[in-house]
# Entry
Amino acid sequence: MGKTHICWGLIIVAALLPAANSRGGDERITFEQHIAPILQARCVKCHGEGKLEGGLDLRRKFLLAKGGDSGAALVEGKPAESLLIEKVTQGEMPPKEEGKLEDKQIELLRRWIAAGAPLAGDKELPLEAAEPPSRISEEDRKFWSFVPPVRPPLPVVKNPDLTRRPIDTFLLARLEEKQLSFAPDAPKEVLLRRAAFALHGLPPDIQVLDAFASDNSPDAFERVLDRLQASPRYGEHAARQWLDVAGYADSDGYLAADRLRPQAWRYRDYVIGAMNSDLPYDRFLMEQLAGDELSDWRRAEELSAEQTRQLAATGFLRTASDPTYPGYTEPNEIHQVMADTTQIVSSALLGLTIQCARCHSHKYDPIPHRDYYALQAIFTPALDPARWQPSEVRGIPLATEAEQARITTHNQKVDQRVAELRAEVAELTARYQRKRVIGLLGADGKDDALVAKFTAALLAATDKRSDEQKGLVAKYAPGVSLLDADLAKWSTEYQQQAAKLNAVVASETAIKQQIITLRGLTDLDDKPADCKLLLRGEYSKPGAVIPANVPEVLSPVSFKFSPQPGYKTTGRREALARWLTEPSHPLTARVQVNRIWAKQFGRGIVPTLANFGRSGVKPTHPQLLDFLATEFVATSWGQKKLVRQLLSSAAWRQASTPAAATLAADPNNELLGYWRATRHSGEMLRDSTLIAAGKLNGSMFGSPSAVSQLGDGSVITADDAAGNRRSIYLIVRRSQHVTMLDLFDVPMMEVNCPQRSASIVPLQALAMLHGPFTEQSASALADRILREAPATDDARIDFACRLLYSRVPRPAEKEVLASFLSALTAEKLANASTSPTDAQKSDALRAAWVQAALVMLNSNEFLYVH
# Structure
């Protein structure tokens, strides 16, 4: 009896708690709204999820009626005969330690049963389909990343003279706790090289290196930072990290199909432009989430450049893989697009693994199952499964409604004129065809029926002619054709008239206007679309409709999600952007400043860049993170200013060689007591190699450069102007990942990549030593050295080191390289005649320099930023 009592106690507590929120006796009480949510939250663990204590299953209303070992829990319309009511009113349940239910709670349950235990709809849904009540506790809300950041005071340090920026005090304070300090400043040439790669992803020019070396003014380095940030190269490099986070690609994915996305590059160009113009981060997010909702662009007289840019920004919401096309809109694929879009948004902007709540409530973070679909509901008006638009169909016309109407009218007039002209051409051709036929028939040309038959025979394809037609052609004109070209040869007059008319047709056709369809996202209309909770994430098991909302744990209890509908838009995405960019938002600023910090210091303050939840790694310097986040917001969300603050700090200027005490006390350099040397990304390595070889094409923006796949499966770029553009402009095709970039951890974009991994594998060394790209580059680099440097070994070695390493060579390096070149040259000339010719000497020297260049490209100093 004891076990049964416990089971009944759970049932009663679960069923009656909603009474506290009852609005009065007239309210219609339903299983889904009042009973099922509590059962789901409190009872199913023991009565439905793999076990049935007391034989009782609570996942459906009919199972309550069926009951367990003690009989039916309810009898519809008869509370007095329902065992549930009996146990409650007699005070047997819940158990004493749970406390007796209040009378109004018992009355709520009695009223529900007396009313026939109604459902919300005609069809009973599984218990899991009901929206459960909030399970977010105050303890959940107190987790560090869910609490809005507060600007901390600057810590007091023993050696303030070692600091340059406020961030240094936070770092130095932690170091001093362990009796440690900063490493000395790196040499000037190292700092310049480090800054050039940090801001451009490219090495500094030799001219810049020389100018900086001779500039001894106190603010020389700060002025270098300003110049680097003012260059358009800055945006190209800064954009790369965000495009990873956004999951940018130029194709739809899904293996062999992997259709190209012709206009996807406009979003890439938008990001580069935003980084170069230092678009405030809050505006940057607003435009990407709701660029189409920021103005009434559809009803404007014409589309402005600003509106075009904002529409391109919504490409952020179109980066997910999408295999759908007209005629193929499988529900599973549709819901996967929605899931991937939700994951991209949540990982990029919130730094949370919200995707883990797609099938069930999050196992670690306070993100209920319903919150996942509440967030997804924000995008449902644009990505509505019930009105799905396939990938190549969905888009935004780069024209207002008025412009579209004008263009349509214009094109209709052009089409009408072209049709009239083509009719004239057809009439002219028919007239000259008849002349030609009558001439061939001679005396028989007076027979109109014969003329018609013979004309048809000559116009028919040779292999399609009937026997009669073959006979006519053989009799009157073997080898003759009535094609336009043959008519033109036969009649100069026809040729001139036809050419004149066709030229007019071509000129008229050329003035037709095209409307570019942008790969962006906009709501289908201003009507809210339903988003249903999917049981276990399965589209075939839809549950309750979930209203659009943001994750509950990230907002105050009183928060209300309030979209403002506009013309053909629900305003949901704009409301999401407004919520995200509230100064008090707990995550938005933290996530972005941590991402920027990781890019500049090689590791985030929170090492798990896209997981600020309980399963992520806690911040190494929580006060520093909050200082940066609050400062970021206070300075108008300026990303360039934040980057400059980091690069001008004492911490960033440190040398990369640690003191023995620092290495012993902090082997992983979590306290940042020295600079963390990092290997170039795949893009930086490729671009640096091209620039050293003198082959980098610096043209910006526009359609991406193609790649090609060889017979062995490797994917390469062409060794021409288009193929030698910066890596950010190479086509990102999911099924054809450039081998060189793939080897050096450039992600293959399945969803998105909030954080890159770094590997060290033998294939990397093999590619650098024997890969076609490196070999071609070494050859071009050798030619450049021989062409541009003065014609002595010393001068050439000096030029090569400054070009590749941004410094002059050390004496020992000069000696080794000179010896290496001498030995290789001698080896090449060993088989030559007693007196080798100048051409042979030149060839031998070039061959030696090709090998020297290859060795230098494989050095750690070229591959790493120190």
In short: Residues 678-761 form one domain. Confidence is low (pLDDT under 50) at residues 1-25. DSSP finds 34 helices and eight strands in the chain.
